Amino acid sequence: MNRIALVVGVSGITGSNLAEELVKEGWITYGLARNPNISLEGLQPVAADLLRPESLSVALADVAPTHVFFTSWMRMETEAENIKVNAAMVRNLLDALAPKQSVQHVALVTGLKHYLGPFEAYAKEGFLPETPLREEQPRLDIENFYYAQEDEVYAAAARDGFTWSIHRPHTVIGKAVGNQMNLGTTLAVYATICKETDRPFKFPGSEAQWNGLSDVTDVRVLAKHLVWAATTQEAKNKAFNVVNGEFFRWKWLWQRLADWFNVEPVGFDGTIHPLEGEMAQDGTLWREIAERYKLVEPDLSRLASPWHTDLDLGRPIEVMTDMSKSRKLGFLVYQNTEESFFDLFTQLRHDQLIP
């Protein structure tokens, strides 16, 4: 029986890499986005707006997926708006597919804000969880659009009879252009600017992040995990953390990132130096760098997301994630974190996104 995948949010960092994995594995793969401009051979693009049910009905008229991978979200001004909009996106999509009765499994990608709190209360006093983070930890007693998205999946599964999986990555490291959260590319752009201007490559975050343990999620690991959970009976109807499988400290990794770019590293100096402020005036400078080196993306905002990098690196606690649940069920993929960053930097350079 053919496996037919619908990747929702195919233009993003997770969706684009997942689509590549699915096509490689021989799936019939559709990719949905408002502008699904992914040049991937074998991917069938679907242009639709998740907030417009009529748009979905037209775009999905001839699409009957067996597996749905939901990787999309929108950032709004308040968490109440985040809940309204992001829950509606999931609900509209699953409502549009319900009459087809083709969906066997839905995978939803959320993240560690499930444990750390939404943007408005992220890693704040009163919402600091015990680490390592484990899937059985209860929801925080606070509104969170991740919870709302999960609840939409649960409700549709009860109605339509499909199985589900929830995937909670830490910071995702991989290539994408124009997405809202991209720490790896943000640091690559920041290091490039430091090199071009002889600025020090200054760690922007907190003492807890500098000295504490951390982990990240290589987008290739996340893609394999999504496919594994969708095709493994024992993984159905479960929520999973997804990380590389090793821990590191930023005070160890920062020097290595600096060495790759040949810039002078400066560690935590007692003060947080948010990248959003450090890079606030660098838009014109990046256009000059892009012109000088003939880079393909001169718009700094389409590559760097300093606000999100500040959120991650400014946390007042160390954050690491337990993967035992997946390991016990047979998912044994492991990724060296240093190589996650270096592979990304090499790809960005190859694709002329950094010099």
Automatic annotation (TrEMBL):
PRISE-like Rossmann-fold domain sequence ranges: 66-267
Query: This protein's superkingdom?
Result: Bacteria
Stored InterPro entries: NAD(P)-bd_dom_sf, PRISE-like_Rossmann-fold
Q: What is this protein called?
A: NAD-dependent dehydratase
Q: Which organism is it from?
A: Pontibacter arcticus
